Amino acid sequence: MPQMGVSVAEGTLVEWKKQVGDWVEADEVICAISTDKIDTDVEAPATGRVAEIRVDVGETVEVGVVLATISTDAKPGEPHVSESSSREGTSEADVAMDAAGEAGELQGDTADDDATPASAQSEARPRSAGGRRYSPVVMRMAAEHDLDLSQIEGTGRGGRVRKQDVLAFLESGGAGAAPAEPPMHIESPYKPDAPAPPKKRAPRFAGTPEPVSGGTLSRMRQSIGRAMVESLQTAATCTTIVEADMTRVDAARKRLGVSFLPIVARAAIETLREHPALNATLDGEAYTRYDGVHLGIAVALDEGLIVPVIRDAQDLSVEGLAGRIKDVAQRARANRLDPDEVRGGTFTITNPGGAGSIMATPVINQPQVAILDTEAVVKRPVVVTDELGNDSIAIRQMTYLCMSWDHRALDGITAARFLRALADRLEAWPVG
Amino acid sequence: MPTLTYLQAISDAMRTEMRADERVFVMGEDVGVFGGAFKVTDGFTEEFGPERVMDTPLAESAIIGCAIGAATEGMRPIAEMQFSDFISCGFDQLVNVAGKMFYRQGLSVNITVRLPSGGGFSGGPFHSQNPEAWFMHAPGLKVVAPSTAEDAKGLLIKAVRDPNPVVFMEHKHLYRRVKGEVPEGTYETDFTARVAREGTDLVVIAYGAMVHTALEATAELDASVEVLDLRSLVPLDEEAILASVRKCSKVVIVDEANQMCAAGAQVAALIAERGWEDLDGPVVRVATPDVPIPFSPPLEQAVLPQVDDVREAVRELLDY
Predict the structure, then answer these.
(1) Of A135, A139, A140, which is closest to B281 when you measure between CB atoms?
(2) For residues B288 and B256, is the Cβ–Cβ distance under 8 A?
(3) Least Cα separation, residue A128 to chain B (angstroms)
(4) Closest chain B CA to residue A160
């Protein structure tokens, strides 16, 4: 009979909502009682099977009297205790809540450990085989020494195996104590590996997954594929990468209302004029440099990549380049490029960074000797040095300029010098 | 080596540092002419003059604020709170200004704030508290709590020299009850834990006055009980704690402070996280329940952890 209020001393049982043998969840209503102040439902303090009902309907009992007992070892669907006499370890929880008003506290009593705090008696508590529980240190020591803990007599509360018991067992050379190691070759630092557990044979792969569509590559993909394979088979392709601080370029592009690409293109054109070795074609052994820059701009279409060429790009300003890039990209997407517009380039820029990649090794657009790849501009902490030589860490907009080039036509130093000059130009780009 | 009380050792530490270093000075309520509420600074005005032994108004915020200002100018002030309970009036200066000054401005705040703390003498709710956990929770502050005369001197000298704000918890109950040999001259005690007594079966982790309670409680048990004196709460000597847990596998943690979020709670959390595989029983805490400290002597005894409470907890866990 739970305490229902400071002054309530007794209550009358009005109704049992559960009968002996019924399964009851903790906090589920088990019976109704009436006191001189209120009528109220009583909730079960534990989950289990109602084992015994001690107070009949209509009886009036004092606070603290046990109303019923619940078997907390029972499981749903199992036969009732009385039907299964062989069962051991039945535990009972008194439904009565004591007069102190600790509603829900469980007066637990289990066969395996009577010292465990009652509130810990839940099914979720990890148990080892045989119903004994072990502390972390005992489990660890057992694993280290390969012990069978059921062989060890516990001297702790309720027969619990304590660390001291394991130590004593080990000291006495207990039956399961570390097995002697087989003799080994004296000079060998190796121990034989434990035999591998028999591998479960994986089910044989039943074939390729069901295709969702089929057919041959589109004409455009076939054409791109041929060109790419031919390039890689022809050129001695190398890739050089230089890091560039794009913070000023970002400010400039925002002011102009353009993307990074036309500014990088303009800077690349200016730098190419100083490094003409890269503004060139190599056809067999015929190596040709050009004065003007016919700039290829890779445009990604749904079906594949196309590289329209902006002729005499050196004559265009940043805004001019931006307009032309937009124009060719739009016409490429609308399939309205002239065949001539995708030929005759002297240098190509590809621009996959918009998708978030930070590094790539592009394939040279033959017969050109270099292709510049611009990658995502990301904020990174970098060390910057002021005019007095003081270092500090700043958040800057950084990118990698990746360029693949043909080692037949030029050497790495040329590529690196070009990229460094390009990066320097970008880092000093006029904002205003 | 002279034998000093805990209180004399604290005086000795300040006197030694003030003689050696002109930057060190003390300030607080009645620390000057009167010599301090507990006579810790008795004779200081005569030796060092009123400029280095400054009587202040009853204004803890001003005391700590002045100390912070002096420290940023390169001084090494020692500020006394007459009772640790009163520091709540200086909380903002200590927690928000001193604790964060280095983080915000890169300025060192080399102050030491002495907090006479603890109960056991019927001082009631305003004169008996153990507020160390407030400051453990505030980034930027160090918190130390000696239990012996020797450590009181060494930790205080270390605190005065530490470039960070250090909260120095000195337990009033130990002032004249604890005596010990204290080295003459100057020495520093590191902010680390100390094994007060070696043992193998169980470790009692405590600090301040509770170290003595733990030693007494476990002196005559039929078991080998280790007592670990934390000495420093921030930084917390995690490795020493884990080493004791590894050796003993059973742990009782004693706080004189109110139980909720006390220093011992942090120790228990550490053991749960990093000492799990060494445990052979639940981590047990003995602490003051979450109530104000009563005036009434029997009630005060009932709430503060007593020797019998600790002994009972230790016996229970040993039997587990």
Answers:
(1) A135
(2) yes
(3) 15
(4) B320
Interaxial angle between packed helices B149-161 and B6-20, expressed in degrees from 0 to 180 and rounded to the nearest 10: 30
Residue A7: its pLDDT value, please? 65
Rounded to whole angstroms, how far apart are CA atoms A393 and B168?
37
Q: For B250, which residue in chain A has the nearest alpha carbon?
A: A163
Which helix H or strand E contains A60, and what residues bound it? strand A60-62
As a whole number of angstroms, the longest Cα–Cα distance in chain B is 60
Q: In sequence order, which residues have a C-beta less than 8 Å from that of residue B307 and are 6 or more positions away? A: B213, B216, B217
Sort strands A237-245 and A391-406 into parallel, antiparallel or unpaired. antiparallel
pLDDT given for residue A216 in this prediction: 81
For testing contact with chain A, the best of B247, B280, B317 (most A CBs within 10 A): B280
pLDDT value for A171:
87
The answer, for A162 touching chain B at a CB cutoff of 8 Å, is yes
Quick one: which H or E segment has residue B234? strand B232-234
Contact A163 B280 (CB under 8 A): yes
How far is the C-alpha of A275 from the C-alpha of A298, rounded, in Å? 22
Query: What pLDDT, on a 0 to 100 scale, did the predictor assign at position A201?
Result: 60
Question: Of B280, B268, B155, whose CA–CA distance to B208 is shortest?
Answer: B155
Residue A14, pLDDT score: 85
pLDDT level of residue A194 (50, 70, 90 thresholds): low
Residue that the structure tokens 């056991």 belong to = B120
Residues of B designated as active site = 127
CA B116 distance to own-chain centroid: 9
ipTM value, please give it: 0.74
**Percent of chain A at pLDDT above 70?**
76
**pLDDT < 50 positions in chain B:** none
Q: What is the pLDDT of residues A65-123, one digit of tens each?
A: 888 988 887 776 655 544 444 444 444 444 444 433 444 444 444 444 444 444 444 44
By the 8 A CB rule, do B189 and B155 touch?
yes
Distant-in-sequence, close-in-space partners of A206: CB < 8 Å, separation ≥ 6: none
